[in-house]
Design goal:
Number of strands: 8
Bound molecules: cobalt (II) ion
Strand content: 35-45%
Helix content: 10-25%
């Protein structure tokens, strides 16, 4: 079902300040910053070897990330796995008793399609499935 870890998501209040830490102090390459309206968030991707770190800043108090920061504070938010076919991966996940947060995949960053699995069915870890390039706009 999964090909590799695509990225690790970190919830932040101040994207610019955290980008400075990851880029200038930890020395990671900034790939880009973009708005992800479906998540009500602004995200920055930083490359580390073959994988990436995604810094996620909510753009609305209604954003799921804003609620997460309210409850648990800033920090580790989710782990994202690359899948070749998100609809197939979602169907397989459901058939194995995992709960998807949405019925359909949503547009993510970089024209990807994404879907989250409920942390109560994945050992307390919010888990994202990502199909790169699955969404064209
Ligand atoms: Co993510």
């Amino acid at each position: 079902m999964m090909e590799k870890i695509d990225h690790i998501g970190i919830a932040v209040k101040d994207l610019e300040a955290q980008v400075a830490i990851y880029r200038d102090q930890l020395g990671m390459e900034l790939e880009g910053i973009e708005e992800v309206p479906s998540q009500m968030a602004k995200v920055a991707f930083l490359r580390v070897g073959d994988s990436r770190v995604e810094l996620v800043q909510p753009t609305s108090p209604d954003s799921p990330v804003a609620k997460s920061i309210e409850k648990r504070g800033e920090g580790m938010h989710h782990i994202a796995y690359m899948v070749p076919d998100i609809r197939a991966a979602m169907a397989l996940a459901r058939s194995r008793g995992l709960q998807t947060l949405t019925e359909e995949p949503k547009p993510g960053a970089h024209h990807s399609l994404v879907c989250f699995l409920h942390p109560k069915t994945t050992g307390g870890v919010l888990t994202e499935l990502v199909q790169p390039g699955g969404h064209q706009e």
